[in-house]
Design brief:
Strand content: 25-35%
Number of domains: 2
Radius of gyration: 21 Å
Number of helices: 12
Oligomer: single chain
Structural class: alpha+beta
Largest sheet: 7 strands, mixed
């Protein structure tokens, strides 16, 4: 299958764009996965308490930001699924999902996990597979006192299994873990995902009278919400004095209200008239880049993340001419084969800008953050 052709297992670790070592000041989320794995279901309110208990001294703003980031990234990593109606997260069953690799069958552990899960897998598989635990982390930005503070989030290690013998089903089944080695999980996910065009077909458009609330419009230039004085075609967020929120996608003289869960899709509605593609892809490295201001819808992000089992590396794409970093943060997904990158773009009705990270960009480290500077 063409989608299997990615990097070799030898190059897999080298192609990951990520920080190799968690920093000491990282927000620890590993104990939270253990608790949710044991309970099966945890309300969002309890999740905030778990973040606080695992990280004494965190401010309320940081706790709420960490919880929000954690819900999304653990969903993308395949550990749990959020239920927005009951405001809770449900832990997924432990399993191993196959990731793209062109020379060997490789997979990563997803779902529920405990401290000894990786050790048990290694023990039961024995010489049939190589089991590695590799560092994994993400970052988040928290707004406090009108300033954004960067925090490192220490995630559960990525458990990578490389098969030497395909007959592993019985050994894994004995410890309650399934592995379907006949399909690439990320390819299945991206095919299953709904598309932007299909979502638009479901919207109910009608004549538009804007609420007399605070209004912001999504700018296709800066990729952020700005104050709205007129109401042309685009995506709008209205906020009342009591903090009620309504989101509308305006098309022509009509508009459709969309739920907060569809806000990620709504941003892609708004930028369809933008001439310059926002998605970037390096075919040689298998790196897929998405502006952080334009997060992928959950199922598509899960497909991108489960190409490697690592959270995306977040870095600034800084123009060497202007030096302007604001709004230029990108999420870099590793080990993404061309068919999956192209299918994600197709689902979003977007084009892809092909790049060569080694030739067009240079990575600089200033001790605090990574910056990717375009070579002009």
């Amino acid at each position: 299958m063409e989608v299997v052709a990615g990097v070799t297992s030898t190059d897999f670790r080298n192609c990951m764009i990520r920080n190799a070592k968690p920093q000491e000041s990282a927000i620890d989320t590993v104990p939270i996965l253990y608790v949710v794995s044991a309970l099966g279901k945890v309300p969002n309110q309890k999740l905030s308490k778990l973040v606080a208990e695992s990280n004494p001294g965190l401010s309320r703003e940081h706790i709420l930001a960490a919880k929000k980031r954690l819900i999304g990234i653990f969903q993308a990593l395949g550990h749990w699924e959020p239920d927005y109606r009951s405001r809770a997260v449900y832990c997924c069953r432990p399993s191993i999902v196959r990731i793209p690799s062109c020379d060997k069958i490789m997979g990563v552990l997803v779902g529920a996990r405990f401290r000894d899960t990786a050790m048990l897998i290694a023990r039961y598989l024995g010489k049939k597979a190589e089991v590695e635990q590799l560092p994994n982390q993400s970052i988040m930005f928290t707004k406090t006192n009108n300033k954004f503070e960067k925090s490192i989030i220490c995630l559960p290690e990525t458990v990578v299994i490389t098969l030497k013998d395909n007959r592993v089903s019985e050994a894994l089944a004995s410890i309650g873990i399934k592995w379907r080695i006949d399909e690439i999980a990320s390819w299945k996910l991206v095919q299953f995902s709904v598309s932007l065009a299909e979502i638009e077909d479901r919207l109910e458009f009608s004549s538009f009278t804007p609420p007399n609330w605070e209004a912001k419009r999504f700018s296709i230039g800066s990729l952020r919400f700005i104050n709205a004085n007129t109401f042309e075609e685009g995506l709008y967020i209205f906020k009342s004095r009591s903090n009620k929120i309504k989101i509308f996608y305006k098309k022509g003289n009509e508009a459709a209200e969309i739920g907060i869960a569809y806000l990620t899709w709504g941003r892609y509605f708004a930028i369809r008239k933008r001439k310059e593609p926002i998605l970037m892809y390096d075919r040689n490295l298998g790196v897929f880049a998405v502006p952080s201001a334009m997060p992928l819808p959950p199922l598509l992000e899960k497909a991108a993340v489960l190409c490697s089992g690592f959270a995306p590396h977040i870095a600034y794409v800084e123009s060497s001419e202007t030096g302007d970093q604001f709004g230029c943060s990108y999420s870099f997904y590793s080990n993404v084969p061309p068919p999956i990158a192209e299918k994600i773009a197709e689902k979003l009705s977007q084009g892809i800008k092909n790049i060569d990270l080694k030739k067009e960009f240079e990575v600089s480290l200033d001790g605090r953050s990574h910056r990717i500077v375009r070579r002009d």
